[in-house]
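pasting for ref
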Amino acid sequence: MRADSLRPFAARASWESSTQLVLYAYAPTRGAPRAVTINCRQEARKDGRHVLVWTQTGEGDGPADPLPDDARRLHLRFVGQVQGVGFRWTSMGVARDLGLTGWVKNELDGSVTAEIQGSAAHVGAFFSQMLEAYRHHPIHYTVEEREDIPLVEGETDFEVRY
């Protein structure tokens, strides 16, 4: 996971050694803090000057967050004015802001399908946040299908699929 994708509202830093800084970012919807380790080393340049080189470890290769006890996954089908209006990208932004995982995709029949996964409260909030996102630019759509489906373990992000 990239540090800038955490959208933290609070952070804390701790020097683990003279050359290693660990940042703990608290994402409002994810609960537990995520640690990003920043390593620092001194390098000599060809011109004789010394510079500090910072590297980040733990990006994207760590384990997925454990699923909350009340986790659920919904398969959704949206119909109406849902293609050509940024619906997939808005869905992705809302889902990521809520800490949901899953995907969204345009279908050939003009509908949009999606699967969203997360805590019951965050899955429920997805729908009200979508309404809020289009408050100033109203579009007309309905959720034609809404089905609880099995959870997907290890999923780490929400994506737009093609």
